Amino acid sequence: MAHVHGKAGAATYRKGDRLMLRALVPMLMLGILTYSVFRSGIQTTSFVGAGAGCAVVVLGFWCVRDVFSLEAAADRYYGGAGGEHDVGVVLSRLPQEFHLFNGVGFYAGDVDHIVVGPTGVFVVETKNHSGTISLKNGCLYRNGELLNRDFVRQATAEAMYVKGRLNLQVQCHVRPLVVFSRAKVRVQTAVGGVRVVALSSLIDTIVGREPSLSSEDIGRYAGRLEGLDISLAFRLARELRGTLRISRGVLPPGVAHPGFVRIALRRRSANQATLRRQAGP
């Protein structure tokens, strides 16, 4: 069994719980306002009573809209947490030389799973979709329809973040994987450098590679991952917000972390700003 750090799906479960708590707020406000109106005995024919009645109706519509939307979003989080739990159970069956980290802090949320072992470092992004996943024109499709999010790009960004935090000392790539816990995957080749696999083939994908890390390397990188703090990731996000742009492509020469996402810092010099003002609209 692998060395397991953290509980798979716990962070996603907490996100769903927070949404459910947010859904209770408008319901509570509606209940308090309705009780206050009836308790005070305000006549609906009066100006104050009519205003209170309108407030109750408006708040009622707000409650219905928010409660349904928040519950639907919470259900998606709960479903995703279930998928992460299933993937975590499978990954925990890796040989004892491997370390499994669940729910590691990331500036755009959290990395579902990170695996460190003799065959390298792997970032595993879990998706709970059902149906059949296929590849067409370099894009992922579910039951013949284009997926509404770019999971390949997401997994690549997470892999680049983990690589930067690990500060790898040996020739080792952080390999991004997207695993569908409930779907049939009909993708035979890597998509933009990312392997897309079904849950049944996840272990073979990780264990089947040639060994590239020594036991000392594994212990060093596992120690660094234990020290990752989610608050540090959020501070990094605040520093980069507004100046960091992520787009597809290959990093230009001289950038520290080569990969399949281009990160460009957009900075305007004083001269450029002056020329723009002189040029006018």
Rg measurement, Å: 24 Å
Strand order of the largest sheet: 1-2-3-4-8-10
Distance between the termini: 64 Å
Instruction: Compute the number of structural domains.
Output: 2
Order of helices and strands: EHHEEEEEEHEEEHHHEEH
- Biggest sheet statistics: 6 strands, mixed
Look at the helices and sheets and give the structural class. Answer: alpha/beta
The level of helicity is 40-55%
Task: Note the beta-strand portion.
Answer: 15-25%
Which consecutive residue ranges, at least 5 long each, have pLDDT under 50?
230-281
- How many DSSP H or I helices? 7
Task: Give the oligomeric state.
Answer: single chain
| Secondary structure: number of strands | 12
Apparent shape: elongated
Let me know the average pLDDT. Answer: 75
List keywords for this structure.
281 residues; alpha/beta; four-stranded mixed beta sheet; 7 helices; 12 strands; disordered C terminus
Describe the structure.
This protein has two domains: 3-233, no CATH class; 242-279, no CATH class. 47% of the residues lie in helices and 22% in strands. It is built from seven helices and twelve strands. The protein has a six-stranded mixed beta sheet. It has a four-stranded mixed beta sheet with strand order 7-6-5-9, with no helix packed on it. The protein starts with a strand and ends with a helix. Residues 230-281 have low confidence and may be disordered.
